[in-house]
From TrEMBL, chain A:
Gene3D superfamilies referenced in this protein's UniProt entry, alphabetically: Cytochrome c oxidase, subunit III, four-helix bundle (1.20.120.80)
Name under which the protein is recorded: Nitric oxide reductase NorE protein
InterPro entries in alphabetical order: Cyt_c/ubiquinol_Oxase_su3, Cyt_c_oxidase-like_su3, Cyt_c_oxidase_su3-like_sf, Cyt_c_oxidase_su3_a-hlx
Species for this entry: Shimia aestuarii
Keyword Membrane (UniProt): yes
From TrEMBL, chain B:
Compartments where located: Cell membrane
Entry protein name: Cytochrome C oxidase subunit IV
GO cellular component: plasma membrane
Pfam families hit by this protein: COX4_pro
Transmembrane regions listed in the UniProt entry: 61-82
Domain of life: Bacteria
Keywords: Cell membrane, Membrane, Transmembrane, Transmembrane helix
Lipid bilayer topology: Multi-pass membrane protein
Length: 185, 83
């Protein structure tokens, strides 16, 4: 995955193969969900646009910055661990996990705002997809935070590499999910 | 190869592209901005794959992911414009 690891043959997938199986599987699941969302939108584009206007785009855009910064810290942690800078690597992983918690706090505020407006998963098909896709993604963020803290503790380079790969997958899904759910009204 | 400098450049690009996407969504009618917003999302996904996940070291895999994600974004755009 990096200059710290020279065990991968040229051109081969970097890191753990099973993590790539997971990454591709998750992309397929979320991709199918987003395509279904856009397909159902065809039946009621005006209703979908009206429902989308209740979302807090600024908070979601802020969360994009939070996640890409968190991914940056996780990637740097792996590089630092590869050159033996364990305290720096652990600190970066803790920072990445903390930003994951920030993401969840912003997401929680967004859900609380919807609840205060009387909006639930069955208010409109838009919100069924909204809660399903963003909730499933948030569950991955929770898992990722736990994983980052775990690999900060058990900090073998391969562990950090796998943890960072999972976290980048969460990041990758978000940059595709955000414009479709929040912006294309 | 992943380096600290490459990662920092990737992070700055990701933040910059996110700001451009936000500006597009706020400053243009959404049906006009939609292609740009999806293109920016595609670029961000490619940066994450190339630099954070280090697919820069596996160019054939990077091309495969890029092609698949491009088809995905094109389909999303088609469905959006059809609605």
């Amino acid at each position: 995955m990096s200059q710290a690891d020279s065990t991968h043959p040229p051109g081969a997938l970097p890191g753990e193969l099973m993590m790539w199986v997971l990454i591709i599987s998750e992309l397929l699941v979320f991709g199918a969900g987003l395509l279904a969302f856009m397909g159902v939108r065809l039946t009621d584009p005006v209703g979908f646009a009206e429902a989308q206007s209740h979302l807090h785009r600024t908070g979601a855009a802020l969360n994009t910055g939070v996640l890409v910064t968190s991914g940056y810290l996780a990637a740097r942690a792996y590089l630092w661990r590869g050159v033996g800078a364990r305290p720096k690597a652990r600190l970066a992983l803790a920072g990445a996990a903390a930003l994951g918690v920030v993401f969840l706090i912003i997401k929680g505020a967004e859900y609380a705002d919807k609840a205060a407006q009387g909006i639930a998963w069955d208010t409109h098909p838009f919100f069924t997809f909204y809660y399903l896709l963003t909730g499933f993604h948030a569950a991955h963020v929770v898992a990722g935070v736990v994983l980052l803290l775990l690999v900060a503790w058990k900090d073998a380079p391969r562990n950090i590499e796998a943890g960072a790969q999972f976290w980048h997958m969460v990041d990758l899904v978000w940059v595709l999910l955000f414009p479709v759910i929040y912006l294309l009204g | 190869m992943m380096t600290h400098a490459n990662l920092t450049r990737a992070w700055a690009l990701l933040v910059g592209l996110s700001l451009v996407a936000a500006a597009c969504s706020m400053g243009l009618p959404i049906r006009i901005a939609a292609p740009a917003i999806l293109l920016l999302a595609l670029l961000k996904a490619r940066i994450i794959l190339r630099d954070y996940l280090d697919l820069a070291s596996a160019p054939s895999w990077a091309r495969g992911f890029a092609l698949t994600l491009s088809l995905f974004c094109a389909t999303i755009l088609g469905l959006y414009l059809a609605g």
